[in-house]
Amino acid sequence: MVPPAPRKASQPAGAGRAALLDSLGAESEPRSQASPAPEAGPVAPARPVEAVAVVEASPAVPLAPIEPQPIPEFKLAFLRLGDALLIDSLPPQSRGGLTAAHQRLAMALVRALGQASDEAPGVQILPWPAFTSRSLDQGREQAEAAVQRKLDHLLEPSPARFVLLLGEAAAQLVLRSRETGEGMRGVLFRPRSQLPALATASLSEMLQVPGCKREVWRDLQPLIRQLADG
């Protein structure tokens, strides 16, 4: 006869399971407890929003246009006659240089001042503006500098005893003066050390204006006395 299968011990439930665990010296499983929510810390006060100043840009001030420097127009003839240097103001628009009549009158002036002038003068012409381009600086300062260079070039090989400045343009550019009219005529100047210079009418004025030669003779008197004194 087959013995009956042993009966499985039934799993204790509820209070019986707890009593069983207690008898075995085992602690019952702790019940999960929800962790308390952390206490909220103090709330920092909101920082005030700083106002940003808006600086309006001032409108750009337009620069004043640079006025172009006026370009003087002249034509100077440099004549070397012995110890004399004559600088004559020719009409700026004239196409030619000195005529034969101009040269004869220049030689007569030098002889009137007691200087020998048997040979025809050597002539150099300086027209201005020197270049046709209007983009180049050919203003008053550049023109005066060009005249001074020409004067130094002619005086370098052999110094002159005196200089005659014939006409307003020659006197203004050599003496670096803006004076107009007859204010410089008949007055002795020294554009270089120990070099007397006298301003009077141009050769063209002497040839064309009646009575001009008489005025020129009067203008020459200070220079005549200077040369006589040595």
Order of helices and strands: HEEHEHEHEEHHH
Q: Supply the number of helical segments.
A: 7
The CATH topology of the domain at 74-228 turns out to be Uracil-DNA Glycosylase, subunit E
Shape: elongated
β content, as a range? 15-25%
CATH class of the domain at 74-228: Alpha Beta
Query: How does the major sheet shape up?
Result: 6 strands, mixed
**Span of the ends, CA to CA:** 180 Å
Could you tell me the radius of gyration in angstroms?
A: 56 Å
What structural class should be given to the helix and strand makeup?
alpha/beta
Query: CATH superfamily of the domain at 74-228, please?
Result: Uracil-DNA glycosylase-like domain
Largest beta sheet: strand ordering: 3-1-2-4-6-5
Mean pLDDT: 81
CATH architecture of the domain at 74-228: 3-Layer(aba) Sandwich
Helix content: 25-40%
How many E strands? 6
Poorly predicted runs are none
Task: Give the topology, please.
Blueprint lengths: L14 H9 L50 E8 L2 E7 L9 H13 L9 E7 L11 H16 L6 E5 L1 H8 L12 E5 L2 E6 L2 H6 L3 H8 L1 H8 L2
Tell me what the structure shows.
By secondary structure, the protein is an alpha/beta fold. The protein has a domain at 74-228: Uracil-DNA Glycosylase, subunit E (3-Layer(aba) Sandwich), CATH 3.40.470. 30% of the residues lie in helices and 17% in strands. The protein contains seven helices and six strands. Strands 3-1-2-4-6-5 form a six-stranded mixed sheet, with helices on both faces. Strand 1 (74-81) and strand 2 form a beta hairpin. It is elongated, with a radius of gyration of 56 Å. The protein starts with 14 loop residues before the first helix and ends with a helix. The mean pLDDT is 81.
